């Protein structure tokens, strides 16, 4: 398990600091397939995963749902034929928190 995936999520509240630019860079190095996207001025972490059919994309979606429920932190998941897109951000701070990078790393692990 990667260092990030194995880190514990920190309790998050609306005054929690978002990750700064240098932290963002350092975490992204551990998540080479993830991209930062900006929707309505909110930074989010996004990755699409390919599968051989809808059933496999859906099974992965369920595994991501389980890690989200365990952590109490929830992504937007879009499931299509052969493809699942996962987007993480922290609603409470309208941006990226360390927890989003931890959950992205755990997402990578349940894709394997
Ligand atoms: C009350 C509850 O803990 C919060 O609403 C949690 C639930 N899941 C969450 N998920 C995400 N991605 N961001 C949040 O800020 C968030 N908040």
From TrEMBL:
Entry protein name: Putative pterin-4-alpha-carbinolamine dehydratase
SUPFAM superfamilies in the cross-refs: PCD-like
UniProt record, GO biological process: tetrahydrobiopterin biosynthetic process
Entry's transmembrane regions: none
Catalyzed reactions per annotation: (4aS,6R)-4a-hydroxy-L-erythro-5,6,7,8-tetrahydrobiopterin = (6R)-L-erythro-6,7-dihydrobiopterin + H2O
EC numbers on record: 4.2.1.96
Organism superkingdom: Bacteria
Family named by the database record: Belongs to the pterin-4-alpha-carbinolamine dehydratase family.
Keywords carried by this UniProt record: Lyase
Presence of keyword Transcription: no
Record-linked HAMAP family: Pterin_4_alpha
Enzyme class per UniProt: lyase
PANTHER family cross-referenced by the UniProt entry: PTERIN-4-ALPHA-CARBINOLAMINE DEHYDRATASE-RELATED (PTHR42805)
Molecular function terms, GO-annotated: 4-alpha-hydroxytetrahydrobiopterin dehydratase activity
Alphabetical list of Gene3D superfamilies matching this protein: Transcriptional coactivator/pterin dehydratase
């Amino acid at each position: 398990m990667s260092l990030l995936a194995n880190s514990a999520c920190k309790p998050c509240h609306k005054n929690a600091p978002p990750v700064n630019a240098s932290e963002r860079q350092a975490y992204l190095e551990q998540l080479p397939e993830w991209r930062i996207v900006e929707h309505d001025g909110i930074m989010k972490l996004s990755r699409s995963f390919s599968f051989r059919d809808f059933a496999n994309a859906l099974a992965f979606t369920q595994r991501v749902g389980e890690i989200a429920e365990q952590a109490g932190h929830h992504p937007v998941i879009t499931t299509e034929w052969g493809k699942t897109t996962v987007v993480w951000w922290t609603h409470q701070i309208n941006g990226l928190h360390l927890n989003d990078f931890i959950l992205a790393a755990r997402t990578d692990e349940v894709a394997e």
